[in-house]
Amino acid sequence: MPEELLAEASDDAFVAAMVTAEVALSRAQGHELQVAGTFDAREIMREGRAVANPAEPLVRRLRELDRRAHEGATSQDIVDTALMLVARRSRELILEYADAVAAGCAALADEHRSTVMAARTLLQQAVPTTFGLKAAGWLAGVAEARARLAAVELAAQLGGAVGTLAAYGDRGPDVLRRYAAELGLAEPALPWHTNRVRVADLVDALALVAGACGKIALDVILLAQTEVAEVRPPAGGSTAMAHKRNPALAVVAVAAARRLTGRIGLLDEHERAAGAWQAEWPVVADALAFAGAAAAATRDTLAGLEVDPERMRGNMTPDLARYPPAGDTFVDRALERYG
Amino acid sequence: MPEELLAEASDDAFVAAMVTAEVALSRAQGHELQVAGTFDAREIMREGRAVANPAEPLVRRLRELDRRAHEGATSQDIVDTALMLVARRSRELILEYADAVAAGCAALADEHRSTVMAARTLLQQAVPTTFGLKAAGWLAGVAEARARLAAVELAAQLGGAVGTLAAYGDRGPDVLRRYAAELGLAEPALPWHTNRVRVADLVDALALVAGACGKIALDVILLAQTEVAEVRPPAGGSTAMAHKRNPALAVVAVAAARRLTGRIGLLDEHERAAGAWQAEWPVVADALAFAGAAAAATRDTLAGLEVDPERMRGNMTPDLARYPPAGDTFVDRALERYG
Amino acid sequence: MPEELLAEASDDAFVAAMVTAEVALSRAQGHELQVAGTFDAREIMREGRAVANPAEPLVRRLRELDRRAHEGATSQDIVDTALMLVARRSRELILEYADAVAAGCAALADEHRSTVMAARTLLQQAVPTTFGLKAAGWLAGVAEARARLAAVELAAQLGGAVGTLAAYGDRGPDVLRRYAAELGLAEPALPWHTNRVRVADLVDALALVAGACGKIALDVILLAQTEVAEVRPPAGGSTAMAHKRNPALAVVAVAAARRLTGRIGLLDEHERAAGAWQAEWPVVADALAFAGAAAAATRDTLAGLEVDPERMRGNMTPDLARYPPAGDTFVDRALERYG
Amino acid sequence: MPEELLAEASDDAFVAAMVTAEVALSRAQGHELQVAGTFDAREIMREGRAVANPAEPLVRRLRELDRRAHEGATSQDIVDTALMLVARRSRELILEYADAVAAGCAALADEHRSTVMAARTLLQQAVPTTFGLKAAGWLAGVAEARARLAAVELAAQLGGAVGTLAAYGDRGPDVLRRYAAELGLAEPALPWHTNRVRVADLVDALALVAGACGKIALDVILLAQTEVAEVRPPAGGSTAMAHKRNPALAVVAVAAARRLTGRIGLLDEHERAAGAWQAEWPVVADALAFAGAAAAATRDTLAGLEVDPERMRGNMTPDLARYPPAGDTFVDRALERYG
Fold it and tell me: Which of A241, B65, B135, B231 could be joined to B109 by an S-S link, Cβ 3.0–4.6 Å?
């Protein structure tokens, strides 16, 4: 798992994002919260776990610094906005990793458009294909998943106690607009405290990225089997056997993709859920971490991949010679659409 | 569960969709498969289960009618395309239900923009809101989910044995284009037999619709509690107690939303998965059925909903009088954006 | 999926089980419900879906035959008891399949205790093992899973409207005892209408059986790869390629194991859930069907498996010769404990 | 989430458990690994993530101290055994919490055996019950789940590179026996490196505990609703509204129960999985954390629960007076069986 991504989803980063949201809130109301020094993020998160609310211990501290802190807001506003800020920075990293995966696939597709190999269905040799076309298929998957992730709208959340912003009187919509602008997040038509569609959408898109990368890594592991040996991925050490070349990075990618199975439930009661909302954060944090891990490990797998065209040709059984070869039209189309 | 939707996802409908795909394939190659009479769908599906391949028994029968049937195609082409055809018709129905839900929410939002009630967080009365704003929040959720579902691209699948279309020689891309056009499905840049992103995307979007509707139904159930009694949803019978008004339709919606938890895994090996692909169809079929059930039951719940503004006002505790009332700016914004 | 198992979980079987429960209930009260003829199971289930309650339409019909039908009971009593009856018969079949899988593993373990082959970790050849030890590991998994499934207690459910059995006055516990005895199900200490632990336990145990069988099938698929070819599983037809031997049965088993991912949620509100209970039945039905499918297909895979000891020996790379061979102590221990 | 439980599942605790396993391994072979000082757990886990193997960086360090360290073992032996050691200590804590929950339920069941209240099905008042019987139902659920968790066998894992223990020659079974005895873990019949039934069983049992506790917490939240007010759970602060009593602990329990949805997949390839095994640890760690959080928060919720029998009686609608009251036979039976 990339350390830079873990850092973005750490307790420190989350508490910093909550502070950013509170400062933006104060500016949106025309004054500026002065936050000197930093807070002990672990302590704040520890206290927050006890009341299912990580904003509460922070707000208590901020109000000691400035009694106008958090004015008109509710804890969920700050937590949801911090989640969007964390997701934004993490998403940037994940999109970079996915772009590198796509570039790796595109390079392989182009280079190996004429490298003949056995296509395998149900893990049996079927008819000939090319390694280029195989890589073109990988490219399509990761590019489509990446596009879905890039399209998810990350929006500021500000609704006050129950989503009316009534504490601001008529200024409510104006405060919301300024708050979103300060943060560089989208301004929602109305507070989304119990409309969790965008959170679910984010997790779903991250699962697509993880899955599309995991598929590539799984194919690499299968092609790297001792008996197949058509590719050699970068290897990690074995504690027991000196001769072994474990496809460790590809395994990291597959493991991460397999882990990303949770869904956001959406069934939040009334104006704040009694349990469903509080169960969201670990799902989102896992999704960011696992999608990032899958994408980064797949990027590194492709970057260090050695391809053996001789072996690909040699592995084909005589049966396959009776079938026509694959052309490269679909490689061209994939490079044009997704490259 | 709407019977019309069950019919769309029945064995009969699925076999008919496979036949449609085979006929389109023959036309795309310039001849026309003549299919006289019908097939026993249950028998075909029964035989198909035994080999994890519902196309195989159909193709055997078609080849007895016309030896050119299925030429150049593989079973997965037909099954995937049939899945897209079934999904298309089912999606039309589900979008209709979701539109009716959105219309019901919009009407309530407009009518009750000034109907004051207690907002509840963690199921405790918090501060005042309006029933109109609550309905506006429902509207936002279902409209966003509906838009996601409508945007999923349904594409024809044709790749031949392993996705090269090599059996058609240079004509491959042309056959694919005609095949997609015959079916009225999108033409993919390249065969997507092991790129399952669009299938996952479909299931994810269906889960959003089910969840957004389930959230509405859950709120209705909570507002209809004996001790709250602010709304009266349409009731279903109880076998044990004559006086009870079970919110049966809303319960159907919540149950359907809770059921839709599966994900499409994406980790398909090489050019056809050994298990992952074969596990997809029940997930998609469930997702279509449960999203449809949630949407239709929520539509009917809203259509028969009686709202009691007196009770809403009367239920508010004295504490709430100290808080400012909710305006209707966000109701207007919701109606403008999503109405 | 075995047709005999599908029949046990069909609408017909479920309605018949509900009738059995109602008859047992009448006998437990000292009279006997006379049910002449049969009911249209599809119609009853269709009506039941509309009110999230399959017992309601049946009870209506039974009361036309005998006004004392269903006396003192609630719909959930009948549905839960029918679920237990369906599970009992299905479990018998699944245990039979699992026994056959275990017997197949034991036979392979014994026969191939000295058949040397490469062990593979992360799909790379590691050091030598024997095919007998591999089969012994399969045996341990399936035997442990089978034991868990056999140990799940299937109990009668009778609680009346809300679990008090108050309609029977002091006779309540006595009626419960007789009812359970009539049905041959365990008598619970108290009604379990909102204590779904035993339902969750059943689904969990079925997932273990499916998973343990799926692991065997996955290993078979991997060993049967064209380039490995150490075993030949029974083959199913391909629609596109005459030369291919698809490991169709093993794929059925893996697909079934992958599908069985749902959990029973347990969060049932008060004395009957508003959605959670109603979402259970499809999960249980799926679990029975998929566990049965995985076990039956694995049984048939092992029954038709051809093992190639020559190829196993020949596939080993020279590196492996430096490592000591595997003994057969653990084979003996596995056969003794689980055989 | 209880801090003592988080500590048991921390990186520090996991690395310490791996060291414990390595020391036990050395003793089982008749010498003793001398581990002076401690290791930087974060650094070891960081390095481990990069190769999907947390034992590898530890073993490298240990071998610098003693070249015989890890002799005959593989990384998975150490990781799996450490997992069992962590699970053992965490389970002790969780069983304590569950016992306290059961004791709280039993006390309420006994004290309130005659406290009449409305039973609610589908969140509608149905007929009368007693709060004692309701608590007796909670008791049954948590006691059954607790018994399942206590029954899970935690076993040592030692198989060497591929599960043959061949590196020890004939001494293999003897080393395994001593190793298990040193650790106080069960001795398995054979290495279980790719038979993950016991890991899945552990996670399933933890989910039962979380769910059974979450059901109690959910009922408390519903009974504590402003309009119902039949119980007052311990309250946590609100950042926005001074008058609110948020049922914060009960919400923690429900959130934790909702989070625990993952399953262990069992489909591990050959003698070590390429992804499935590596995806297990976060699922187990989550399951321990969330089950513990649900149980501890439910314990504290019950410990501070104020019950209002007057309000319970007063909330009942006149319809309920026509139904017979609940007896306390089932309360007695529950206390006898589970108390």
Answer: B135
B238 is a catalytic site residue: yes
Q: Say which residue the tokens 């040799």 belong to.
A: A125
For residue A67, pLDDT beyond 80: yes
Contact B49 C254 (CB under 8 A): no
Q: For residue B55, which amino acid is it?
A: A
B310/B115 Cα distance (integer angstroms): 9
What single letter denotes the amino acid at residue D32? E
CB contact under 8 A, A325 and B166: yes
CA–CA separation, B243 and C173 (whole Å)? 26
Show Cβ contacts of residue C109 under 8 Å, excluding neighbours closer than 6 positions. C132, C133, C135, C136, C139, C331, C334, C335, C339
Residue D221 lies in domain: 3-338
CB-CB under 8 Å, A250 with D50: no
Alpha helices per DSSP H over chain D: 3-8, 11-28, 41-50, 55-65, 75-111, 131-151, 172-183, 197-223, 248-259, 280-303, 309-315, 329-338
- Count CB pairs under 8 A between chains A and D: 141
Q: Chain D residues with CB inside 8 Å of A240's CB?
A: 73-75, 160-161
Q: Could you tell me which of C308, C129, C132 has the C-alpha nearest to residue D271?
A: C129
Domain CATH code at residue B118: 1.20.200.10
State the nearest Cα–Cα gap between A166 and chain C, in angstroms.
33
* Distance (Å, whole) CA D238 – CA D240: 6
The candidate with the shortest Cα–Cα distance to B259, out of B278, B285, B238, B279, is: B285
What are the distances in angstroms from CA C153 to CA B305, C201, C247, D275, D300? Answer: 42, 9, 36, 34, 31
Residue A308 half-sphere exposure, CB side, CA atoms within 13 Å?
A: 15
Query: Considering CB atoms only, which of B50, B74, B236 is closest to C239?
Result: B74
Q: Average pLDDT for consecutive 10-residue bins of chain D (339 residues)? A: 87 95 97 86 89 90 94 95 97 98 98 97 95 98 98 97 93 96 97 95 97 97 97 76 80 92 86 88 91 97 97 96 92 96
Using CB atoms, list chains with 3+ pairs below 8 Å to chain D: A, B, C
Which residue is associated with the tokens 């291919």? C244
Which of D53, D59, D239 shows the shortest C-beta gap to A55? D239
**Averaged over A214-227, what is the pLDDT?**
97
Tell me, yes or no, if A177 is annotated catalytic. Answer: no
CB D259 within 8 Å of CB D286:
yes
Distance (Å, whole) CA C76 – CA C51: 13
The shortest C-alpha distance from D18 to chain B (Å) reads 32
Query: Exposure string (b/e) for C41-78, b if CB count within 10 Å is 16 or more?
Result: beebbbbbbbbbbbbbbbbebbeeebeebbbbbbbbbb
Amino acid letter for position A7: A
Query: Crossing angle for the helix pair C280-303 and C75-111, nearest 10 degrees?
Result: 20
Chain A residue with minimum CA distance to B53 = A122
**What's the structural domain count of chain C?**
1
ipTM: 0.95
pLDDT per 10-residue tile (average), chain C, 339 residues: 87 95 97 86 89 90 94 95 97 98 98 97 95 98 98 97 93 96 97 95 97 97 97 76 81 92 86 88 91 97 97 96 91 96
Residues of chain B short of pLDDT 50, as ranges, are none
Number of residues in chain B: 339
Q: What are the DSSP calls for A77-105, one per residue?
A: HHHHHHHHHHHHHHHHHHHHHHHHHHHHH
- Write down the catalytic residue from A238, A263, A333, A337: A238
DSSP per-residue codes, D217-235: HHHHHHHTSTTT-SEE---
Which residues 267-306 of B are in CB contact (within 8 Å) with A?
A: 267-274
Q: How high is the pLDDT of residue A339? A: 87
* Tens digits of residue pLDDT in C215-263: 999 999 999 999 999 999 988 655 556 677 889 999 999 999 998 888 8
